Amino acid sequence: MQLRKKFFIGIALTGIAIVIAIGVQRQSKLLRGEELAGLYCSACHLEPDPETLPKRSWAAALGYMGYFLGIENTQYLDDEPVFVQANVRSRQEFLQNENSFPTAPILDDVDWEALRHYYIENSPENALPQFNKPPLQWELSRFRSLGSSYRPPLPVTTMVYIREDTNEIYIGDSEQNSLTVLDQDGRIRVLPRRFRPEITPVDIEFINGTAHVASIGDLLAEEPSDTRLGSISTIELVDQSIADATATMTLDNLYRVADMEIADLNGDGLTDFVVAGFGAIGGRVSWFESQGDASYEEHVLLDLPGAVKVETHDFNNDDQLDIMVLVSDAREGLHLFINQGNNQFAAQQIFETGPGYGHSFFELQDFDGDGAMDVLVVNGDNVDSDPYNTLKNYHGLRIYLNRGDARFEEAYFYPLYGAFIAKSADFDNDGDLDIAAISFYPDFSSDQREAFTYLENQGGLEFAAYTNEDVMRGRWMTMDVGDVDGDNDVDVVLGGSYLRVGMLAYPEIYDELSQRGPAVLILKNTLN
After folding, report:
1. I need a surface site. Which of 148, 154, 353, 519 has the fewest CB within 10 A?
2. So what's the pLDDT on residue 123?
3. SS3 state of residue 97
């Protein structure tokens, strides 16, 4: 009897020892994975918190990361949907096309498994919900929707611009390589124009009788970065119109252009260009100094890819224009380049975030009326996250108040899944700034996806949120605000783009949007 008792005690102790050993092994694996994350993930960007993505999204996202580490084996994705596997494999092709795929694995199989285990084990089962979001009111009395007769076969609207002095709307389409002009009521005034050299418009600025057009060149990054198909062309208007105008090349051989700014940066009376060359694996932010003979000298400000927006402003009141830059790739963040004179700029980082924030836009405005320029920052680009269009509770728009000496403090956050662009204006004419915002990656699984939001300022950086079902009809990539009809209030124009990116998990919704979604939707302010 005593022997049997000892036997069972021995078995129990052995079992306990095995459980402890397994627990120690698991803990050791997690610790090793955490160590590897600090070593390898932080080499390219801030080390991401496992809670930023749910488990299934980490599976795909780590597939992307594995390619950067030279790991080709993705058998761990065999149980994932076919569209997920195809999406991950496309990233391998992309890196190979860029000659950026390592010739040999940087991690062995054991360490790679430990790294993956760390993120998946510590991540939530489902995406974390939004928090502190004000109630969304499903009525939009501030605006009246107005459609347009303009709709190409598959709209890929990459630019809308309200030209207030002529009450016109300029539409850039990077699938059609065209510029189209609409009147204030959405009727076509100038049929789609295709220029030579070819354009893929993402920005336009008018100076006297000239329009400068920034072209991304390669919208979907299908060519290697060094192909550099981005450009800026100049259109000499005829009777203030592009109808009979011709274009000439001003700057070419640029990384994929996301934005441009035109300014005289060195006070010589000549027009310079600041270019956000998003690129892909390669990219940079540069300013191009006019030499006065139609040539330009490039000055590199930031030799990193991913810049999405640039703005000029004299932040330190020294009568010289400084440059603010928003970066949305790898080391995401906001940068300020202080003009030192003599064509020199001193770099200062305002903030840096982890990957997955997807910064996409910013705007300079004085939100608190203290005379210093604050920053409205938008993040929600989901293209580099995963094929599920994972909802992120940290996507949205933020107001950073200027505290002086290049210090900016986050003072407001509105959660908005897939936020893409936000612009501010006094839409209700009550003396403070309201905000209009669009989402290119809303919650497509919802019957009430928040594709456009009007935030009405209630004072003290508190905003009431409004939308309606009519604005759900489109997938909005771009937007502009301004007085399109000359009635002294601020209107909104939305530009629809019907790419599959971000919608692989929602093929039926994509088909409906691409077949029926408008290329343009005008929101006329009902104030006047």
Report:
1. 154
2. 97
3. helix
Q: Is the pLDDT of residue 3 over 70?
A: no
> Rg of the Cα trace of the chain?
26
Q: Which amino acid is at 527?
A: L
Identify which of 150, 151, 184 has the alpha carbon closest to the alpha carbon of residue 167.
184
Beta bridge partners of 439: 419
259-299, pLDDT tens digit by residue? 999 999 999 999 999 999 999 999 999 999 999 999 999 99
Please spell the DSSP secondary structure of 259-305, one letter per residue.
EEEEE-SSSSSS-EEEEEE--SSS-EEEEEEE-SSS-EEEEEEE--S
Kindly list the distances between the CA atom of residue 218 and the CA atoms of 91, 330, 383, 493, 510, in Å, as whole numbers in the listed order: 17, 20, 16, 24, 22
**Segment holding 323, helix H or strand E:** strand 322-327
Q: Is the dihedral of CA 382, 384, 387, 391 positive or negative?
A: negative
For residue 62 the two structure tokens come to 């780590």
Say if residue 492 is exposed, middle or buried (CB neighbours under 10 Å; 0-12, 13-18, 19+): buried
Residues with Cβ within 8 Å of residue 210, at least 6 apart in sequence: 234, 235, 236, 237
Q: For residues 350 and 300, is the Cβ–Cβ distance under 8 A?
A: no
Phi and psi angles of residue 196, each rounded to the nearest 5 degrees, phi first: -120, 120
CA distance 196 to 183: 24
Instruction: Tell me the sheet residues that pair with 173.
Output: 157, 178
**d(C-alpha 376, C-alpha 364), whole Å:** 6
* Cβ pair 321, 267 in contact under 8 A: no
Residue 478 pairs in a beta bridge with 495
Distance, CA of 259 to CA of 477 (rounded, Å): 14
Q: Is 519 helix (H, G, I), strand (E, B) or coil?
A: coil
Q: CA–CA separation, 173 vs 151, rounded Å?
A: 11
- Tell how far CA 325 is from the center of its chain: 13
